[in-house]
Structures are given as C-alpha cells and as structure tokens.
Amino acid sequence: MEHTKANLRESIRLRRRDNQSHFNLALLSESPEFKSAKVIASYRSFGDEPNTEELNQLILEAGKKLLLPVRLSDNSLEFRNWDGALEKLKRSGNVEEPIGEKFLGVIDLMIVPALAIDSKGTRLGQGGGSYDRALRDFPGISLAIINEVEFVETLPSEIHDVPVKMVLMPSNLLRI
C-alpha cells in the first residue's frame, strides 16, 4: 500500500511543477462554512503546493482568527495564532511556523494540504500522518486545497486516513 502511495505522491509532485493554478478564493469566502467560521487553521505552503499566501491574507482581512500549524517532535501538530507578520515565523525544515503559544480554543475550519483527494474525501498527504492525527478528533469542517487534476475517483486508503469534508480547486468548491 505505501509503495502505491509513494508512487502516486511522486507522480503528482512532478505534475505540479508545471502547473501553478490560480484559485478563485471567492468560492471559499462566499461559502457558509467560511462566513460562519471565527477561527480558521491554515498553513503556509511551500514548494509545489498550491499557494496559500492570498488565502491566509483573505482570512485575516475577513476578521477571522488565523492559526498555523507547528509540527512537534512526535510528528503531531499544534496550532498557534498568526497575524500575518513574517517576523513572527521561524523556519523549521521546509516550512515556516508561527512563534507563540498553542491555541487552546475551538477551530471551526481547518484548511489542510493534500496531493490528491478522491470522491470519498480520502486525502493523499505527504506521508507523515500529521494531518490525519490532527483531523482524527477534529469536529469542525476540514477542507483540502488541490488542483482539478488531483481530484480522482479513488485513492488507496488505510485505517488511519481521515477524509476531508470539502475540497477547494481553482474553479470549484466541493462538499463531500
């Protein structure tokens, strides 16, 4: 199973290098899920991931509390407030993480990275399992950001994989 996922990951990463799509963020900002959310967890994209810079700015401009993840030594995630100031980030490997205290409140909407999503909401991530652990007990709305070609009929899944409830693509917002 992991060999199949590894091959899929590599194939998608190669395709992404040539395809940086522009996302119609109004699809998300006009959705009831976004409008009703007070606290939104997002992430800072890197490499060939769909760019989240405009998305994070939109969250802040909408007056929402923006949280970003910090990866802990056990590969789990905790979320911390971020106000958009670049000087309040520190580099950890390939990603920039917020400096500050762990957020202890309720997260309404969690925006997660993905390499692909299938019709059941199964998410193919980078392989570390951090977001599956974060989503396991998350009662709010989870949303993955992918390019249209990364939405597929079926992905291999394992018992620990946690499906997402929504998918944002450059020109479509799907509820699963």
Report on the structure:
- There is one protein chain.
- With 176 residues, this protein is α/β, with parallel strands linked by helices.
- The chain has one domain (2-175): 3-Layer(aba) Sandwich (Rossmann fold).
- The protein has five helices and twelve strands.
- The strands form three sheets. A seven-stranded mixed beta sheet has the order 3-2-1-6-9-11-12.
- The protein is globular and about 40 Å long.
- The protein starts with a helix and ends with a strand.
- The mean pLDDT is 91.
Brief summary of the model shown:
By secondary structure, this protein is an alpha/beta fold. It has 5 helices and 12 strands.
Strand order of the largest sheet: 3-2-1-6-9-11-12
CATH superfamily caption: NagB/RpiA/CoA transferase-like
Q: Name the shape in a single word.
A: globular
Classify the fold: give the CATH topology. Rossmann fold
Q: How many whole angstroms does the radius of gyration measure?
A: 15 Å
Count of individual beta strands? 12
Largest sheet: 7 strands, mixed
Helix content: 10-25%
Strand-pairing-aware structural class = alpha/beta
